[in-house]
Every structure is written in structure tokens, then in C-alpha cells.
Amino acid sequence: MLKERPVPLQLGNAGASRAKVDTSYTWLAMYFFLNLSLTIYNKAILSTFHFSFPWTLTGIHTLCSGLGALAMARLGYFTPATLGERENMVMLMFSFLYTLNIAISNVSLNEVSVAFHQVVRAMTPVFTIAISVAFLAKRYSGKTYLSLLPLLMGVYMATVGDYSYTAMGFFLTVLGTVLAATKTVVTNRIQVGRLQLHPLDLLLRMSPLAFVQTVIFSWMKGELDDVVSFCQTEMSWKLVLALLVNGTIAFFLNYVSFTANKKTSALTMTVAANVKQVLSIVVAVTVFNTTIGFLNGLGIMITLFGGACYSYVEWSEKNQRARPMTPAFPPPSPPGAATPSEKEELLSVRVVN
């Protein structure tokens, strides 16, 4: 006997209320909130428990994301799609791209300063545009390009500092930025292209593969042995609970990030990531008492202004595309049809007996 799924309670105007909440701006707002929350939580775990194992933390994120997506599928929130061999290979390549992006970013940080790393990563929207134009034949308006200028300049000013780097570090940082842009574009295409995967379905398929690859990278770098030694001496139930909450936040962040990417665009997500990066500096100032200079503060304000400019341009262009086109001249009448003046003359004719 099949167990019927519970039907959610429908209130009077529930559909209209859900439409007002389920918007791209709502998902972007949740993306900002969860991203900043995870950043603060990661910093708290690092400072409180001295759990300085980035690959293991990433593995916990991917594992919890996979388990969370599986639970949502079992509860009936979405139905996993049936994919063929080719589509499964796409998922494998996407998971490898996801893991490789993290790996290159972590390795490049050892070769360059944090300020230089942040400035180069701020160029992700530029690479996103280049990839979309070259491979997806997309076109952007001049206003879109202009709105990105204050954003890039603001990130540069907000992260100004020691710009030390090596030749290899410069190459790896640029490569990581290209991979980040590619990952964002591919994520959007998987969800809105031919596959049309649900965000949770994408998370369900990608997370286990990324978890295995992350564990392999951790073993290759020797971090796995350090984690085993750490667990034998300093592991506690408080740390286990903190890591579980951390993984839960990562699951919701990944879900919200994929959904926001689907409802907006790859370029919007890279712009949002830049604004989030600057907001992280604001959080560091207010929560962790980090000191910044006048130029950094001015850069933060310029970045927020650039993000607002981009949002306004995207909103206005989206409304313009949605507005129905009205012809400048009335369409020609089909052959044999009466013109309005002829119709009036016909209606004014009186029948004489």
C-alpha cells in the first residue's frame, strides 16, 4: 500500500503570497545572510576550537549538503530526475570543477597575499561575461558594463594592502578566478538549460562526488593524518555539535546559492559574491574588531554603490523585456477588409422601403 504524501495547507491567497516571496531578490537576500553567517561561524570555529583544517571543513560541508538533499528528496520536496550516462558524466565533471576551484584557491593563497587574492577574485564578473559571450553567445548592454566599473574599483579600494605575489601564485590566482566564473556559468546552464535540474537535485548529485574528491585532496596534502591526530587528542562533543551546525548552514547556503543562480544569472551571482566579500570586511570590523583605513572604508561604500547600480540596471532591463511591444503604426488590414471609415459609412446606411 502506497503512503500518500501530505498535501500542504492552502490558505485563501496562498499562491499570490508565495509568488511575492519566491523572487530573485528574496533568494539573493538569503544568500547574503547565509554566506555571511557561514563566514562568521567558520571564524568562530577556527578561533574557539583551533580546527584549522580547510579541506576537512569543506568535506563536512559537502557531506552535510548531500545528506540534506537526500532527506529533502525522501520527504517529497522534489523528485530526482532520471539521467543517462552522458548527463551523469556532466555531473562528475561539474563536481570535479567544484572541487578543483576550491583546491586552486587554497593553493594560490600560499603563494600570494590575501589582498592580492581578493582583488584578482574581484575580476570574476569580467571572466563571467567573457565566458558567456564566447561560449553562450550572450550579449550585455553598455549600461551593464558601466555598472561594473564602480564595483571593481570599490573592491580594489576595500582590499588595498600588501600586494605581494609570485609568478606561480599570480598564475594560480587567475586560474582560480577563471574556474570560479566557469563554475557559476555551468551551474546556471545545468539548471536552466537542457537538463533543467532542480537545485536540490543538483546538490544531491554533486555533493557526494565532491566529498570523495575533497577527502582525496586532503589525504594527498597530508591533512587527513593531522585530522586523525586532532580527533584523538582534542575532539569534544561541543566541537562535533559545532561542526554539525556548520555543515547544516552550508547545506542551506548551497541550496539557496543554486536557487538564486537559477532565478537570476551567472553574472548576477558573481556580482553578489563581490558585494558579499566587502560585507565580510564590514562584519570583520564590527564583530572581530578589525581595523581598516579611510581608503578601505571608501572602497566599501563605492562597492555597495556599484552593486546597487548593477541591480537597478538589471531590474530596469528585465522590466523592459517583460513589457509588451506596442507597434508605432497600426497593423495593415487584410485584403478585402473594410477600413474604420468604411465601417462607419456602412453602419450609417439606412434602408429605404
TrEMBL record:
| Transmembrane keyword on record | yes
Compositionally biased residues, Pro residues:
327-337
GO cellular component term, pick one: membrane
Alphabetized, the UniProt keywords read:
Membrane, Transmembrane, Transmembrane helix
What's the superkingdom here?
Eukaryota
Mind telling me what this protein is named? UAA transporter
Q: Classify the protein's membrane topology as the record does.
A: Multi-pass membrane protein
Q: Which InterPro entries match?
A: EmrE-like, Sugar_P_trans_dom, TPT_transporter
Signal peptide boundaries: none
